[in-house]
Structures are given as structure tokens and as C-alpha cells.
């Protein structure tokens, strides 16, 4: 049987995964549906694999990655607006999290907060949020470059779709408040040069959100390998896999993503969920799958704290 879905079904019907044999039930997508897409989504189509296995989840939209002005993520970037709205906040590398005061116990061996682009990171402490005082720790958001991590975080923070237009060059931290919990997401960029830092953050996080580009067939093996390496020594860390870009024509449905990532092999003890998501056109409200993902994550945070 599959390992997906351990932890049970929560929230709205179809959220997350059901019993192990039902990886395809997530987020309202029928198992491995081969529905026709309804538009001409582009996204990171340059990396998309062969079309024909689509599991469209909503209106597609053209991605601006690669053709838009390279707006920097940071205090003046799109996420800053979320921060000003009081719902989210982000900074460029390094992660000087406003809600994250210098904690009593930093994590040694992490990249320097003073690191700038092109510099080699030095060892430094990353303060973690109010650790030991009964409040939340961070939710780590990882995945290959271009998978959609930042776009998803924008959307979760604002409840409106906002696709990212630039790669994360370091960290991206966003606070998302729900009625019941405060969640601090920490994305680390997925480019090759940043992947070596991923594992440094794992020991101190509540859960891992792992985002994959469902249409990037060619790199799914790499995504799988990195995920397995990351969590091999942590048998209980809850993992939420977001099979993003379900709007793209070539997107694998979540059953295929489940197989491609060999999710049944990532441990029996952990809670593990797989949800199909997409970040639709800018400005619209987030999709029901994204709302479900947000509720699930909030629930997991409450359970894990
Ligand atoms: N079609 C489509 N495009 C998406 C979706 N989500 C994100 N994109 C686009 O994919 C590209 C990459 O998105 P990002 O959010 O920057 O990806 P990332 O994982 O943060 O990438 P790094 O910061 O480089 O690690 C952008 O052009 C987004 O607009 C989606 O669900 N569908
Ligand atoms: Mg990013």
C-alpha cells in the first residue's frame, strides 16, 4: 500500500489523502484523471514534459517567469504587500524574520543573515520563533526551483492568487494567520546552489511542505531523490507534498506524482499528505484545493505543536 494519506482525512471532503490506497483522492481530483484542460496555461512550460497527462484544476494562466522584469522578492517585492496587510511578510536572503526575534537557542551552522547574492555563506545562527514558549515553529517550504513555492505562499498569505515573478535567491519568510493559529513559513530557494542548506533547517521545523511542478516530468526524479534524502533520518516529520501546476496540460495527476516521488517509501510513522494545487491567474481568489491545503497545514501545526 501507499504511505500517502497517513494522518487521516481532514477538512472538507477529499482533502488530503484517504487511506493509503487512495493517493488520487486529494483535493478533489479524481484518481489520475485525464481530464482535458480548458485553456492554454504556460507556467514553466519550458520545463514541462510531454503533454497529454493533464489533470487540470482550473483556469490556466500564462506564467511570467522568464519574461517579466526580474523583480526582487523582498521588502519591496510582492510579499511585502502581504506583510503590510498584516497577513504575510517576507525578506530576501537572509531571513531576518520580523516575527522571529533572536531566540535563546539559535541554530548553529546556518547561513549568515548578512549574506548577499554572490557571497559565500558563513556560519551563523538563525533565530527561531519563540521557541520554547509554547508558540509555533516554522514550516519549511522546499522544492526545486520553479515549482511554485513562492507563488503558493503568496496565495496562502493573501487568499488571493499572486504568482511569483522571480526566483527566490535565498530565503522567503511569510507569516500566515488563521483564526486558530499563526503559521510561519520559511521557503528556501530551490536552485542548486541553495539546496545544500535545506537540510540544515529540518531539525527545527514543525512540518515540511514539499512543492513539485507536476508538469516538470524530467526533474521529478531529482525532486524525488532530494525529498527522500532530506527526510531519511527523520521518520516522524509530517510532510505535505503539493503537486502544483495542475492547470498545465502536461501536469501529472497526483496518482502519478505519488508514484514518481515514491511516496509509499518515505516512512510508515509520519503523517503524509499529497494535494494537487495550482496558482491560477493573478487577482482571483485561491482555489478550493489551496484553501484545503491551508486548512490542512493549520491543522497539522496545531496537532504538532
Ligand atoms: N501555470 C502555472 N504556473 C505557476 C503555478 N505556480 C507557479 N507558477 C509559475 O511558475 C514559476 C515559478 O514560480 P515560483 O513561485 O517562483 O517558484 P519557486 O518554487 O518559488 O522557485 P524558486 O524560488 O526559484 O525556488 C513562476 O513563473 C510562476 O508564475 C501554477 O500553479 N501554474
Ligand atoms: Mg521562490
TrEMBL record:
<feature type="compositionally biased region" description="Basic and acidic residues">
    <location>
        <begin position="117"/>
        <end position="130"/>
    </location>
</feature>
<keyword id="KW-0479">Metal-binding</keyword>
<dbReference type="GO" id="GO:0046872">
    <property type="term" value="F:metal ion binding"/>
</dbReference>
<dbReference type="InterPro" id="IPR006689">
    <property type="entry name" value="Small_GTPase_ARF/SAR"/>
</dbReference>
<feature type="binding site">
    <location>
        <position position="168"/>
    </location>
    <ligand>
        <name>Mg(2+)</name>
    </ligand>
</feature>
<feature type="compositionally biased region" description="Low complexity">
    <location>
        <begin position="47"/>
        <end position="72"/>
    </location>
</feature>
<dbReference type="InterPro" id="IPR027417">
    <property type="entry name" value="P-loop_NTPase"/>
</dbReference>
<keyword id="KW-0547">Nucleotide-binding</keyword>
<feature type="region of interest" description="Disordered">
    <location>
        <begin position="1"/>
        <end position="130"/>
    </location>
</feature>
<protein>
    <submittedName>
        <fullName>ARF like GTPase 9</fullName>
    </submittedName>
</protein>
<feature type="binding site">
    <location>
        <position position="150"/>
    </location>
    <ligand>
        <name>Mg(2+)</name>
    </ligand>
</feature>
<keyword id="KW-0342">GTP-binding</keyword>
<dbReference type="Pfam" id="PF00025">
    <property type="entry name" value="Arf"/>
</dbReference>
<dbReference type="GO" id="GO:0005525">
    <property type="term" value="F:GTP binding"/>
</dbReference>
<feature type="binding site">
    <location>
        <begin position="244"/>
        <end position="247"/>
    </location>
    <ligand>
        <name>GTP</name>
    </ligand>
</feature>
<dbReference type="InterPro" id="IPR053254">
    <property type="entry name" value="Arf-like_GTPase"/>
</dbReference>
<feature type="binding site">
    <location>
        <begin position="143"/>
        <end position="150"/>
    </location>
    <ligand>
        <name>GTP</name>
    </ligand>
</feature>
<feature type="compositionally biased region" description="Low complexity">
    <location>
        <begin position="98"/>
        <end position="113"/>
    </location>
</feature>
<dbReference type="GO" id="GO:0003924">
    <property type="term" value="F:GTPase activity"/>
</dbReference>
<keyword id="KW-0460">Magnesium</keyword>
<feature type="binding site">
    <location>
        <position position="190"/>
    </location>
    <ligand>
        <name>GTP</name>
    </ligand>
</feature>
<dbReference type="InterPro" id="IPR005225">
    <property type="entry name" value="Small_GTP-bd"/>
</dbReference>
Amino acid at each position: 500500500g501507499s504511505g500517502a494519506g497517513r494522518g487521516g482525512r481532514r477538512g472538507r471532503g477529499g482533502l488530503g489523502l484517504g487511506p493509503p490506497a487512495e493517493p488520487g483522492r486529494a483535493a478533489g481530483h479524481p484518481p489520475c484523471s485525464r481530464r482535458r484542460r480548458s485553456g492554454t496555461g504556460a507556467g514553466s512550460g519550458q520545463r514541462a514534459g510531454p503533454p497529454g497527462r493533464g489533470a487540470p484544476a482550473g483556469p490556466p494562466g500564462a506564467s511570467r517567469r522568464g519574461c517579466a522584469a526580474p523583480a526582487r522578492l523582498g521588502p519591496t517585492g510582492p510579499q511585502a504587500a502581504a506583510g503590510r496587510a498584516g497577513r504575510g511578510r517576507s525578506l530576501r536572503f537572509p531571513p531576518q524574520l520580523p516575527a522571529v526575534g533572536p531566540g535563546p537557542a539559535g541554530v548553529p551552522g546556518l547561513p549568515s543573515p548578512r549574506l548577499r547574492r554572490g557571497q559565500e555563506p558563513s556560519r551563523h545562527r538563525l533565530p527561531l520563533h519563540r521557541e520554547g514558549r509554547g508558540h509555533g515553529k516554522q514550516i519549511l517550504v522546499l522544492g526545486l526551483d520553479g515549482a511554485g513555492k513562492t507563488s503558493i505562499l503568496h496565495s496562502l498569505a493573501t487568499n488571493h492568487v499572486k504568482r511569483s515573478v522571480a526566483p527566490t535567491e535565498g530565503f522567503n519568510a511569510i507569516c500566515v494567520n488563521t483564526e486558530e493559529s499563526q503559521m510561519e513559513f520559511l521557503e528556501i530557494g530551490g536552485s542548486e546552489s541553495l539546496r545544500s542548506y535545506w537540510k540544515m533547517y529540518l531539525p527545527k521545523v514543525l512540518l515540511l511542505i514539499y512543492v513539485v511542478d507536476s508538469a516538470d516530468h524530467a526533474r521529478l526524479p531529482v525532486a524525488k531523490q532530494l525529498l527522500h534524502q532530506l527526510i531519511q533520518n527523520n521518520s516522524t516529520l509530517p510532510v505535505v507534498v503539493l503537486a502544483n501546476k495542475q492547470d498545465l496540460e502536461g501536469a501529472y495527476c497526483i496518482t502519478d506524482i505519488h508514484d514518481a516521488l515514491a511516496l509509499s517509501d518515505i516512512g510508515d510513522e509520519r503523517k503524509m499528505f499529497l494535494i494537487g494545487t495550482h496558482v491560477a491567474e493573478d487577482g482571483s481568489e485561491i482555489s478550493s484545493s489551496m484553501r484545503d491545503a491551508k486548512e490542512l497545514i493549520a491543522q497539522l501545526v496545531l496537532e504538532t505543536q
